[in-house]
UniProtKB/TrEMBL annotation, chain A:
The chain crosses the membrane at residues 6-25. The keyword Transmembrane applies. It comes from Paenibacillus agri. InterPro entries: NusG_2_sf. This is NusG domain II-containing protein.
Automatic annotation (TrEMBL), chain B:
InterPro entries: Hpre_diP_synt_I, Hpre_diP_synth_I. Keywords: Membrane, Transmembrane, Transmembrane helix. The chain crosses the membrane at residues 43-62, 67-83, 89-108, 115-139, 145-169. Pfam families: Hpre_diP_synt_I. Gene3D superfamilies: 1.10.1760.20. This is Gx transporter family protein. It comes from the Bacteria.
Length: 129, 191
């Protein structure tokens, strides 16, 4: 290891933390409202497929295209990819997501799931009052 | 006449090295595909980048175009075997971006950066390249949510790959097949 290596590592880690740290703070604020007003926007091929409210009750969403199928499951105020027949299965690894701006991606099937708050307002506006 | 025959011998050696490296890189990619990283709490889509060991070693010993050929071969063969054609463009983008970054760093920063630094830059570039390709596919920047986590995994795997390359280069340098490639410009990055 040379000095430039250490610099490179530090720069990358600082950049990563610069993104992560504000997120930790804001997530504490929005935790109170978890599940109350969150929806998941499911898009396929860039077009909106469905918007579902994240409820405590279980719901399943079937996405069938000529590329294959994806099954999403909503439960306990979160959403997860339950099953898919894509070759890499990366989408199954995202687990259950519960916070705004978190995403599930299934690249081979061009499926994108993103959590948003139903009011459409940014969290930042939420706690100014 | 003797000159041209030694030239063709060099060209043959290059071809042999690329072929061996491609075979090893494909096997490493296949092994890597069996490791459930996301089950271990890592970001989905993050990879160990084991094949990067062969690509960086190739950049070290051979010319840029040889390493480019290796990247394309490895990506195509892996897609054939794993049947991941739908994400072929996507992984090609990541691999080529990583290759370009490592190659340029080897040329420009070869004296300042060690193989470990170059490997880290390559790992990070691979992740950024994949995110870029994915965001183009989805026409959305939302996937960049995972950028910070991927940066951190890129550093960790980059260090591991870099150490592996260092050992590999030291060992391969003792083999006669690689002897004549030791004077290449990439040599400056040794250590």
């Amino acid at each position: 290891m040379k000095r430039a290596d250490v610099w490179l590592i530090s720069i990358v880690l600082v950049a990563a933390l610069a993104f992560l740290v504000p997120r930790w703070f804001s997530s504490d604020e929005s935790k109170g409202g978890i599940g109350d007003n969150l929806v998941a926007n499911v898009t396929v091929d860039g077009k909106l497929f469905k918007t579902v409210k994240l409820t405590k009750e279980e719901q399943t969403i079937d996405i069938r295209t000529d590329r294959g199928y994806n099954i999403l499951k909503v439960h306990d105020y979160g959403i997860e990819m339950y099953d898919a027949d894509c070759p890499d299965k990366v989408c199954l690894g995202f687990g259950r997501i519960t916070r705004t701006k978190q995403t599930i991606v299934c690249l081979p099937h061009r499926v994108l799931v993103e959590i948003a708050s139903v009011s459409g307002e940014d969290e930042v506006d939420g706690y100014v009052q | 006449m003797g000159m041209s025959s030694s030239e063709s011998a060099t060209a043959l050696k290059r071809t042999v090295i690329i072929a061996i490296f491609a075979a090893v890189a494909v096997v490493l990619s296949l092994v890597e595909a069996q490791i459930p990283l996301s089950g271990m709490g890592m970001v989905p889509g993050a990879k160990l980048g084991l094949a990067n060991i062969m690509i960086l070693t190739c950049i070290f010993f051979l010319r840029g175009r040889d390493a480019f050929l290796l990247v394309v071969l490895k990506t195509l063969l892996t897609a054939f075997i794993l049947g991941t054609f739908s994400s072929l463009l996507f992984s090609l983008f990541g691999s080529l971006f990583s290759f370009v970054v490592m190659y340029l760093l080897m040329l420009i920063g070869g004296k300042q950066l060690s193989l470990i630094g170059i490997s880290i830059a390559g790992g990070v570039a691979h992740n950024i390249g994949q995110l870029l390709a994915a965001s183009m596919v989805f026409a959305s920047l939302k996937i960049f949510y995972y950028l910070p986590m991927l940066l951190i995994t890129g550093v960790v795997t980059g260090v591991a790959v870099g150490f592996a390359v260092r050992y590999l280069v030291t060992s391969l340098s003792k083999i006669s097949l690689f002897e004549e490639f030791l004077d290449d410009p990439g040599d400056a990055a040794k250590g």
